């Protein structure tokens, strides 16, 4: 019916893929997924508890695999000892798919001079790590990790999230957010999805189990974000036994497709190979307990179909961050809106 001039072929839309450290895979190949965990982690906040031993990481992956695990998303961002160079070998040897992260954590996790050095070029750094590789020769990151604060967002959080939003727009990658003690979910959504116009389904809110506020959970799910319930609690044990009820409430409200589960092993002592719960806990006691409360089908959806959808991206060719193209409007007072330096 159309008689006008042809507009030319539409630009090809890339098929969604999960970007693992061994390359892009179809989402359906991800398998049973620990949607938030760490094989390597280093922070001045956790002195003496560093995850920095490749042998221990390999042993933990073997234990996870033996418990039925197929994929681990490592939320360790820039400058926290991600072990990027080790990840491809660990994935090959264990048979567990691994997704690495770019991004930046709270300021408290870095020496001030590191923040000073990287803060003006964050969006460009994130894009480079997502599209070219970590540190020049490392694997590509498959997600962007950022962090909020306790019931609020400081200037560092806002700056980092503005950079993450730019990198998200340039690549399609999903943004995973550490919520401090599970708080601030709606502040984060206001910033990322309101001011910065990130599509809600490109946001994963982490640690919501630590603040079992069912009203907030439901509001975040209704907004379209993914909700990660990640990690057995240590200091806040009381939140653990509320988890089945929290997930049941979300599922009953029709948000079963928003839920992700993770282990979030952050210290050497928490590893299963050191006597802690570690990654296998998610698929042993945790899964069993949730299946008793919610049924196996729903829990399988949390562990497979949901992470496959959440971490898949229609990876676009990188555009230069900072151009301000697209219908996104102003990026707020703290956004790095100028052209960013390369990483
Ligand atoms: Zn974590």
Q: What does this entry look like structurally?
A:
The structure is a single chain. By secondary structure, the chain is of the alpha/beta class. It has one domain (25-313): Metal-dependent hydrolases (TIM Barrel, Alpha-Beta Barrel), CATH 3.20.20. The chain is built from eleven helices and eleven strands. The chain has helices at residues 54-66, 87-94, 112-118, 122-131, 155-171, 185-195, 214-223, 243-252, 278-294, 296-303, 305-311; strands spanning 18-20, 23-25, 33-37, 71-74, 97-99, 101-103, 143-147, 175-178, 203-206, 226-230, 259-262. The strands form three sheets. A six-stranded parallel sheet has the order 6-7-8-9-10-11, sandwiched between helices. Strands 3-4-5 form a three-stranded parallel sheet, with helices on one face. Helix 5 (155-171) links the parallel strand 7 and strand 8. The longest helix is centred in the middle third of the chain and has 17 residues, at 155-171. Residues 322-343 have low confidence and may be disordered. The site of zinc ion (ZN) has 5 residues, from loops.
């Amino acid at each position: 019916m159309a008689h006008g001039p042809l507009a030319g072929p539409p630009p090809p839309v890339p098929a969604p893929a999960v970007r693992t450290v061994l390359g892009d895979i179809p989402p359906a190949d991800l398998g049973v997924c620990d949607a938030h965990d760490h094989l390597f982690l280093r922070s001045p906040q956790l002195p003496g508890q560093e995850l920095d031993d490749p042998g221990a990481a390999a042993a933990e992956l073997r234990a996870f695999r033996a418990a039925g695990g197929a994929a681990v998303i490592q939320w360790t961002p820039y400058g926290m000892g991600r072990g990027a160079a080790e990840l491809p070998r660990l994935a090959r040897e264990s048979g567990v798919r691994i997704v690495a992260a770019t991004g930046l954590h709270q300021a408290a996790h870095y020496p001030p001079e590191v923040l000073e050095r990287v803060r003006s070029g964050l969006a460009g750094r994130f894009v480079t790590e997502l599209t070219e590789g970590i540190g020049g020769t490392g694997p590509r990151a498959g997600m962007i990790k950022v962090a909020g604060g306790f019931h609020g967002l400081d200037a560092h959080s806002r700056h980092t999230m503005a950079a993450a939003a730019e990198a998200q727009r340039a690549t399609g990658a999903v943004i995973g957010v550490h919520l401090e003690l599970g708080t601030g979910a709606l502040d984060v959504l206001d910033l990322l999805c309101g001011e910065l116009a990130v599509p809600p389904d490109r946001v994963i809110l982490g640690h919501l189990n630590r603040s079992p506020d069912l009203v907030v959970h439901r509001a975040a799910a209704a907004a379209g974000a993914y909700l990660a319930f990640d990690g057995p609690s240590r200091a806040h044990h009381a939140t653990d036994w509320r988890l089945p009820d929290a997930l049941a409430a979300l599922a009953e409200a029709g948000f079963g497709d928003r839920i992700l589960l993770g282990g979030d092993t952050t210290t050497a002592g928490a590893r299963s190979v050191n006597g802690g719960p570690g990654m296998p806990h998610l698929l042993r006691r945790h899964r069993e307990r949730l299946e008793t409360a919610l049924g196996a089908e729903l829990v399988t959806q949390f562990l497979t179909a949901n992470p496959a959808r959440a971490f898949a991206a229609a990876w676009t060719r990188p555009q230069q961050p900072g151009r301000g193209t697209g219908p996104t409007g102003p990026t707020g007072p703290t956004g790095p809106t100028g052209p960013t330096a390369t990483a």
